[in-house]
Structures
1.
Amino acid sequence: MTLFKNTIVSFLILSFITGCSASRHAIIAGDSELTDAQVCRNYLNDKDILAKSYTAENTDEANYIYALNREVKYRALTQYKCEILAAQDRKEIAQDVVAAVVAVGVVVLAVAAAGAGGSNNYSSGYAWDQFYDGNYNLVWRCRDKSTGQFAYNSACSGQYQNDNTWTGK
């Protein structure tokens, strides 16, 4: 089950990463697979350093500024277009995350219904029994369906307390 949880967490992390801005090296390299939304995220995050009055701190930064300006102009992106693209991108990421969470929920429910992961649910072979104890108090206890022996009440957790299996008090 731990491997399953780690896989889900990794998937969610990757969902967030793929929608982020591009690395500076990808911008400098002129990576043709960059989306407009990725270029826009860089533009919106770094528009202050794109100003003509800004002086680059080193050669890598100067190359990045030049390359980002080149990509923005080549793609005819404006601040307004970039804000719209970034908003759409955030919405798509949010929808993907919701879909992933729903998918995880469905899988978790299916695993729980199958009795995997050590949970004791309806298919576990346990049921609630209501009866009078030695002091004439009406009590609920969990029983093993196959033997009728008392079990830990946690074995019946998640089940409605009904007395349909052992009807006699």
2.
Amino acid sequence: MTGGAAVARNMEEVNRTSVDWALLAVRVAAGIIFAAHGAQKVFGAFGGPGLAGTVQFMGPIGYLVAIGEFFGGLGVLFGFLSRFSAAAQILIMLGAIVKVHAANGFFLGAKPGFEFNLALIGLLLAIVIAGPGRFSLARILPLPYREITR
């Protein structure tokens, strides 16, 4: 390997490590937000309505929303089934925008608009596109792994 190739390989490794740290930061932020909101909906934690209150407010879809937010948040946080969890949470946020927040406009305020939902979708898209990164539970568990060819 020539000197230039070694430098390029080293820079690629440095860049990959930076991406992995960035994905960890995104996963921690989104995972905590969704797990906390899901805990409100499932367990009544943090002053939330609990599962019965969530279903009473949302109807049967409340089960999917509550479970998707809580367990999806944990999946994103720990890097396990991250892409699936992030995609499910994007669908939940799109539903929240359409059903609740779009009528209130864009900005947060007395009647919250969809600004926060859109920011969360942006965080989650990074996980759907790039995966959980190196610092994730998925890298530790002996799960089937598919090599990506270039």
3.
Amino acid sequence: MTPTRGTMTVAGSKTHAAARVAATGTVAYGRREGACARQDGCRGVALLEVVLGLALFFGVAVAILAGLSACVRSATDMRLEAQAADLAITLLSEMQLGAIDIEDAGPMAYEDETLADWSWEVVVTPVVGTLTELELTRVEIVIRNTPHDYTHRLYHLLAESAEETLMAVGGEP
């Protein structure tokens, strides 16, 4: 009897394949004799391969998502830091120009709607030092973002007036 679907065998000869077709009624293409000769053993190995493949896929997916989460968190922190530094420098510039008095103030919320989550505070401390011709004041500007629990501090030394600063360094008022 000749096989109806083909004559390829791993075990050897065409006669062996013909005997198998006669006994089982099926032809096996490329199947190994031994461990996977029975259909149940091959199903178990295939299931194990699928489970391991899924475990590997989900492990890699979790690692990628954790990396993306860290990137988003870092970008948010950088944005907060940049905005807080801009707000602190703006407030310091207004103090140097005389638009805001150099005195303790705050915490105060910003009036602008886009800065609703931000607040500022100024802490002024006189500096006692050896320079008698110049009265310095240490200004601490504190910028806070409440929803993100972020605080930025800027420290700067200011003279009582711009004229005093110019006279102390040898310039004319």
4.
Amino acid sequence: MSAASQALKARTEDFAVAVVKFCEALPNTIAGRKIAGQLIDASTSVAANYRSACRAYTRPLFVSKLAIVSEEADESELWLRIIRRTGMQSTSAVGRLEQEAHELASIFTASLRTARGAKRAAEPRHPPDSVSRLSDNTL
């Protein structure tokens, strides 16, 4: 595994741990408990599914796991924004985690685009005259 992959593994795990600790300080209300649960699920899923993506044994499995990581990072950012906007925690308390969720979502979305592009580049293409013959037959 590359140094970059190891660093991202550690970064996603650190993010999950920080979110779990952060959620302990959320209000013990119906909304606070619900949002804390959703945020913990999403943030720990980022770490767990990135680890799984790193162990993927096929490109389609890697792309599938990476898509989950990207979605869960984006969902984590959403829950953190809701916490900030509802005033459950101060902007200063949420800001660092919200920024980290945004950065992780951006990283994994870009990685997913690259992985999907590499997948498409590996697929066989039709030779140019087979395409033109196909379109001639349909006219």
